[in-house]
Design brief:
Helix 2 packs antiparallel against helix 3. Helices cover 81% and strands 0% of the residues. The chain has one domain. The protein is built from 13 helices and no strands. It is globular.
Length: 246
């Protein structure tokens, strides 16, 4: 036990953080690749790419996929830059990250609206109610990312907010993992919470306490899912979205 404790003491908290945050970024990219591989990525190779509803993806869907996958790749690059002490490059690349996030929000919203207009939703779902799912994911991502930008000079808040922002993209990938959709779409949101929970557990292990960002971040994620569920059965929501975007 003394040997283990001594070995841990030799590794600085910053070094442990670099490994953890780079590792979780890689896991997120892997999660997305697995989720979208069967219908989309492998379909691109064979020339038979489809969406989860079986439709042939249009230009907006392709752009949506490119932007969101670029975000996950950028997340790995940014954490790797910090891990190799290239902070100046990390900050300069952050400007590209802001532009990419803005494009993701716009294109993500457009993709959701087009899917609702086409009725491209899971069986049994009502298109203008179901739009609450992608809109909720995009809104949550935007909130966490905006907070990460505002607190970019506070590294402890910033890096945790970036995990929370990227977490918001994971449900769409996880629902496409084998067997998940059969258990219910909400299961993907439960699995999504593994990422910030892992961050909280790491905080507790490495620092003896969980950073407050994770507590309110997890609360916001859970409340957001509850709001999505409520809107899925709301005629008022369906009428409002169809009136605005239909």
């Amino acid at each position: 036990m003394v040997t283990v404790a001594s070995a841990r003491a030799l590794v600085s908290p910053a070094a442990r953080d670099r490994k953890f945050y780079t590792g979780i970024a890689i896991v997120m990219l892997f999660t997305a690749l697995v989720g979208f591989s069967r219908t989309y990525f492998l379909g691109l190779i064979s020339g038979h790419a489809t969406t989860i509803t079986g439709r042939v993806p249009n230009a907006t869907v392709h752009l949506h996929a490119l932007l969101f996958m670029s975000w996950l790749v950028l997340f790995i690059v940014q954490t790797s830059l910090i891990a190799t002490h290239r902070v100046k490059v990390h900050r300069k690349l952050g400007y590209f990250g802001v532009a990419l996030a803005a494009a993701m929000i716009v294109v993500g919203g457009r993709t959701a609206v087009e899917a609702a207009r086409l009725g491209a939703v899971p069986p049994g779902a009502k298109p203008w109610n179901f739009i609450a799912i992608p809109f909720g994911d995009i809104t949550s991502f935007a909130i966490f990312f905006l907070c990460a930008v505002l607190w970019r000079n506070d590294k402890d808040k910033h890096k945790r907010l970036m995990i929370l922002a990227s977490t918001c993209l994971m449900a769409a990938a996880l629902v496409r993992w084998p067997g998940v959709l059969a258990l219910g779409a909400l299961v993907s949101y439960g699995l999504m919470l593994v990422f910030p929970i892992a961050g909280a557990v790491y905080d507790r292990w490495s620092r003896g306490r969980v950073h407050p960002v994770y507590w309110w971040g997890l609360a916001l994620l859970v409340l957001g899912v509850a709001a999505r569920v409520a809107l899925l059965g709301s005629p008022t929501w369906a009428h409002a979205t169809q009136s605005l975007f239909g």
